[in-house]
Write a structure and sequence with these properties.
globular, five-stranded antiparallel sheet
Amino acid sequence: MNPKKVFVTELALRDAHQSLIATRLRTEDMLPICDKLDRAGFWSIEAWGGATFDACIRFLKEDPWERLRRLKAALPNTPIQMLLRGQNLLGYRHYSDDVVAAFISRAALNGVEIFRIFDAMNDLRNIRVSVDAVIAAGKHAQGAICYTTSPVHTIEHFVEQAVEIERMGCHSLCIKDMAGLLTPVRASELFAAMSAKVKLPLHFHSHTTAGIANISMYKAVENGARHVDTAISSMSWGTSHSPTESMVVAFRDTPYDTGLDLELLQEIGSYFHEVRKKYQQFESEHNGVDTRVQVNQVPGGMISNLAHQLKEQGALQRMPEVLAEIPRVRKDLGYPPLVTPTSQIIGTQAVLNVLTAERYKSITNEVKLYLQGRYGRAPGSVNEAVRRMAIGDEEVISCRPADTLKPELDRLTAAVAAVATSDEDVLTYAMFPEVGRAFLEARAARSLVPEQLPAVLDTPGPATAAPTEFNVTVHGETYHLKITGAGHRSEHRRPFYVTVDGMPEEILVETLTETALTDGGSTARPSTVSHCPKASKEGHVTSAMPGTVVEVMVQPGEHVAAGDPVLVIEAMKMENEVPAPVAGTVKAIYVSKGDSVNPDEALLEIG
């Protein structure tokens, strides 16, 4: 066997569509190509984990465990690989050890052969239980290190972590370059240093955001990497990955030849080229090469999310300020890598710092937990002044965060006993409690309705049809709209899928008069308006950002002190406690859990 042969992991069924089309690829569009994928000779196919689990139950109304079983049956000769966030599993919080062990055991039984395990902080204490559970299940444990740059992230630092991963008993080691930061020179240095210190097979994973991943991959292979991650060409580039076919050609007739059949890969590429058209409304126009990531380390998907939030605030012009603020917040928090969930934590705080009157005037719950040590040990020194602003004199934990958690599997099992029919159902609820419960209840009631894919509008209609691309001016601001698709009509509503200044959006059009959005017309219906008054008084409580009410923490008549938390708002997947602006008595509450709110609205009143 050629000792320098390069082995390929194909990412089309997970990270590629997560990067390009908002994780919307359906199982029905995966299964037809599985026979060819299985015959291609990949070392593994990544098909589970990350946001795919969430998207299955939230949007597609598919059971992610059933997807896994069906893919395993359709890929009998190729190991299925998943991405696992260590003690976070697939969620945003740390789970107790019994939940981690149970999840990995069931994932292994349902078809996962290779577990790529990482921690967003690169705190290796947070992956140890997962590694042990994978080994106990008789599966392949791959330890992953999140690559980033900062004064503390030196080659020596990464090599020390690689040595520790080898000591844990991992079967292989991956450098996970989630933002496409690894340059060719740095890749050469890093993989050469690791090859000299560890005997584990080395894997290279990167994104083509900055356009340099192909070259960096080749330099990594020249310096000891023997496994690479790629995405079939029609699902590659942008914030996705290096094209599989291109890298197969690059390694051909060299000591690193993959041995993969280029013609078969081209057939697979043609299949995904056609399938991708179905998901046109989820494409982002901000998906080309973007070298800004080399300056601010913000991945393309994160930039899109930030732009969406700023657009809702009417503050899209402040994006340069946010991009400049992100490195400052990252420094204050001790230089964590920007990967889920730390990328959301830092990005949201940066937006708040820019949009509020002063930095850290409003601090998210997640930043508070981070500064308490609840996510793990920061790679560098934390700004102690910011920590005091966030948590005051509260104790900072120094142990592994999960050591503070009691076993919770029995409690989770009891919570969904009425609708859970398997251990897998309980774990679905554990990962995403509200969305998971709603999915299980809808399934039990046989009322699961998947998100509908619109008809693709490739060309404009007849002259009498509405235009597919136009400008709209509202309150003096002009926006460029392009219709990418239209959904099926329901009784009085129809969704239209558009891009607004390049950002994908869904617009729900609801008829209020006798018009013809539905066949045969409709009955006039009242419009839905906000029931919150405009914020105009000192005692009005407002949100710094558009979001959703997660919790109302007070009752009418209750006395609060200035600064006491009264509401919890979720924005950009992060929760933010909203404090009372003044001391007094709660006179009125205008919102309930689940309501959408805007910054100019009074959410409750204190007098």
